[in-house]
């Protein structure tokens, strides 16, 4: 069978041929019983594809799906709850830390005779040297 | 036709709104409405079995999670089909890797067409064609499933797969030809034994 004509035949099923191509195919179909048989086979194949299509999963698909969704949601809620507990636990430490820092700053500001950042934040060379003198180092 | 489609779209949006408000029955209604479409896509791509059902469930779960952001640019059915086809393509890749690893082949076995009465024979032929479909490379399989099994237009198929319409048409023609080549020996063998020809 002519490969070019066969290609035209396959393309024709979805209706995308030019007028000239349609004419060529029409003539070929009229003169070739083999090509007409091939056309029938394509139609049968398309019919079989439609006929054999599944229309549902196993019975109870919706219930099984909803069960899975509920399970996923409760798992998600469980994790969310865990994160919230963790966040509220550490929030306390964060607040206490911020308060301690504020107190330290206020104390340093009160002691210091000038308002410089390294003095306030304990970062001057002398403060560092003083820290090194401590028995910890 | 367009009116019916618009009404259908409005119904779906109302179901989505209700589902987002916590109405589980509304979501169940959507599942009931689109189960056949998702089943046709997933089973067409993967064949029947527990994996197909898992992918079907995953499709709806993805939709459930994405519902909040669903703007309705495309119809719910098209949106679900897009999710289903992508999940199927991933599953096919996984299957091929797994089968290559364990058996050296990524193909499922095909059965010969049985010599049955006419109606049964048509069902058998449909089964054989679907078995053959699953032997096609995924890029051809997806085009056939969307266009010929699900019944989407060429343009819709192109949109779902993110391809040009011309590419869909050429893949469709090639896929049908390849499918015929795959299934023909199984008819021929039967014809030689039964004499009742499909050809």
Keywords, separated by commas or semicolons:
heterodimer; A: mainly alpha; B: 199 residues; mainly alpha; Rna Polymerase Sigma Factor, Chain: A; Arc Repressor Mutant, subunit A; 76% helix; globular; disordered C terminus
Query: Number of domains in the coordinates of chain A?
Result: 2
In whole angstroms, the N-to-C terminal distance of chain A is 93 Å
Helical stretch tally of chain B:
8
Strand/helix succession of chain B:
HHHHHHHH
Tell me the radius of gyration of chain A.
41 Å
The amount of beta strand of chain B, in percent, is under 5%
Low-confidence stretches of chain B: 189-199
The top-level CATH class of the largest domain in chain B is: Mainly Alpha
Q: Helicity of chain A, in percent?
A: over 70%
Class computed from helices, strands and strand pairing of chain A: mainly alpha
Order of helices and strands of chain A: HHHHHH
Instruction: Give me the Rg of chain B, rounded.
Output: 19 Å
CATH structural fold name of the largest domain in chain B = Rna Polymerase Sigma Factor, Chain: A
Average pLDDT rating of chain A: 82
Describe, in short, the structure shown.
The complex is a heterodimer of chains A (137) and B (199). Chain A is an all-alpha fold and 137 residues long.
């Amino acid at each position: 069978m002519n490969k070019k004509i066969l290609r035209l035949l396959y393309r024709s099923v979805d209706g995308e041929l030019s007028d000239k191509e349609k004419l060529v195919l029409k003539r070929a179909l009229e003169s070739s019983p083999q090509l007409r048989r091939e056309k029938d086979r394509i139609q049968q194949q398309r019919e079989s594809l439609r006929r054999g299509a599944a229309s549902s999963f196993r019975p109870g698909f919706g219930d099984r799906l909803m069960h899975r969704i509920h399970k996923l949601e409760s798992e998600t809620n469980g994790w969310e709850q865990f994160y919230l507990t963790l966040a509220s636990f550490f929030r306390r430490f964060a607040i206490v830390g911020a308060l301690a820092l504020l107190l330290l700053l206020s104390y340093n500001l009160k002691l210091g005779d000038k308002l410089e950042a390294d003095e306030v934040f304990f970062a001057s060379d002398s403060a560092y040297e003083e820290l090194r003198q401590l028995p910890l180092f | 036709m367009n009116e019916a489609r618009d009404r259908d779209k409005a119904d779906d949006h109302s179901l989505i709104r209700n589902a987002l408000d916590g109405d589980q029955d509304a979501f169940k209604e959507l599942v009931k409405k689109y189960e056949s479409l998702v089943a046709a896509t997933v089973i067409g791509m993967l064949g029947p079995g527990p994996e197909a059902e898992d992918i079907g469930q995953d499709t709806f779960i993805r939709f459930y999670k994405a519902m909040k952001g669903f703007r309705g640019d495309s119809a719910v059915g098209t949106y679900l089909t897009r999710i289903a086809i992508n999940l199927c393509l991933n599953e096919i890749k996984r299957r091929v890797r797994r089968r290559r690893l364990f058996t050296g082949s990524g193909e499922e076995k095909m059965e010969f067409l049985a010599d049955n009465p006419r109606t049964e024979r048509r069902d058998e032929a449909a089964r054989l064609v679907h078995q053959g479909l699953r032997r096609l490379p995924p890029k051809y399989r997806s085009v056939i499933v969307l266009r010929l099994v699900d019944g989407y237009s060429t343009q819709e198929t192109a949109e779902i797969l993110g391809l040009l319409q011309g590419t869909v048409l050429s893949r469709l023609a090639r896929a049908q030809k390849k499918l015929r080549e795959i299934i023909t020996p199984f008819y021929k063998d039967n014809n030689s034994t039964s004499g009742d020809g499909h050809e």
